[in-house]
Amino acid sequence: KKKIAVMTSGGDSQGMNAAVRAVVRAGIFHGCDVFAVYEGYSGLVHGKDLIKKMEWEDVRGWLALGGTLIGTARCAEFRERWGRLAGAKNMITNGIDALVVCGGDGSLTGADLFRAEWPSLVEELVRKGEFTEEEVAPYKHLTIVGLVGSIDNDMSGTDSTIGANSSLERIREMVDYIDATATSHSRAFVVEVMGRHCGWLALNAGIATGADYIFIPERAANPLTWKEELKEVCRRHREKGRRKTTVIVAEGALDSDLRPITSEDVKNVLVDLGLDTRITTLGHVQRGGTAVASDRLLATLQGVEAVKAVLDLTPEDPSPLIGILENKIVRQPLVDAVKLTKSVATAIESKDFDKAISLRNTDFIE
Ligand code: ADP
């Protein structure tokens, strides 16, 4: 009987509960025992009541609940070999040999490293007398499956991460609210949105709300001309009778010299244009609330696929990341997706912005 553990790790996102629910129920449906690891990798490292066997009814109602009910954390100990050794011990103690991780690229990198190290971790546990050879015999191989939970939509190899569309919807709603008051007072608003180094939320929110201007890291602004261009566009829109000005700034926005473009910088330009300008930093409302239907669906389909992957993978297969490409749920080598994701950061660092855009889900912009 396969024993699968599921955890959420890194930054939370809407839809993580739906993913956990799907793994728990699909696992039980396929005759597996399913465990929830609480508090991300901390739960693996510290074990005990942070690893809990889940029953069908334990996840009842989870589809409609925000955040992640099994907790998430950033765990420094798991970055160290001794932390992962403790994790391996706790997994074997609970009889677990498969792990489904729902998190961002950091969490999935950690998961793949854990798998690569697994045989040597098991060996070390035997050497230290924690288990006998017979006891570890069924645990020679660790199966890892990745689900991407992130509001940023910053993972390559999938068109959409679990939570991105919910976050986008939240931003859309907030910008609509802001637009109403902006129009009343004929004001300008600089709206700062999350996304770390990825402009997907800012770009899509800007299009969905008809913003005047958008700043994202992948399309870095020309340091010499962006202020004039911004003024020109906003002035033109005003001349056409628009009573509000909305500029969306990704938190990681840059100019092409890789200097950050902050909301304050943008505000100063708009003030210079003579506009009564306010900054609204949306902050954590973007991660909050319940998942939109499409994220619940994505999380459910991917959670079911993750269990199927656990059941059909052989030790020779690379750890898969469950993604969605062109509306199909797909598996791809986790390492490749992580590597491609990292190459976006490298492209930005080396000022190859065209490449950065082409590697993102923002490649529909010219
Ligand atoms: P995200 O998964 O959202 O990208 P982080 O990068 O903070 O978030 O990663 C979440 C957790 O995953 C970290 O706190 C750490 O426990 C684990 N992790 C990340 N990178 C590694 C790594 N290279 N090796 C081992 N564990 C890692």
From TrEMBL:
Binding site for substrate: 150-152, 187, 194-196, 251, 278, 284-287
Entry GO terms, CC: 6-phosphofructokinase complex; mitochondrion
Binding sites annotated in the UniProt record for ATP: 11, 74-75, 104-107
Residues of the active site: 152 (proton acceptor)
Residue ranges, annotated region (N-terminal catalytic PFK domain 1): 1-366
Limits of the Phosphofructokinase domain: 3-310
Chain positions recorded as Mg(2+) binding sites: 105
Predominant localisation class: cytoplasm
Subcellular location: Cytoplasm
Any GO BP: canonical glycolysis
A GO term for molecular function: identical protein binding
Keywords: Allosteric enzyme, ATP-binding, Cytoplasm, Glycolysis, Kinase, Magnesium, Metal-binding, Nucleotide-binding, Transferase
Physiological role: Catalyzes the phosphorylation of D-fructose 6-phosphate to fructose 1,6-bisphosphate by ATP, the first committing step of glycolysis.
Record-stated family: Belongs to the phosphofructokinase type A (PFKA) family. ATP-dependent PFK group I subfamily. Eukaryotic two domain clade 'E' sub-subfamily. Belongs to the phosphofructokinase type A (PFKA) family. ATP-dependent PFK group I subfamily. Eukaryotic two domain clade "E" sub-subfamily.
Complex formation: Heterooctamer of 4 alpha and 4 beta chains.
Protein name according to UniProt: ATP-dependent 6-phosphofructokinase
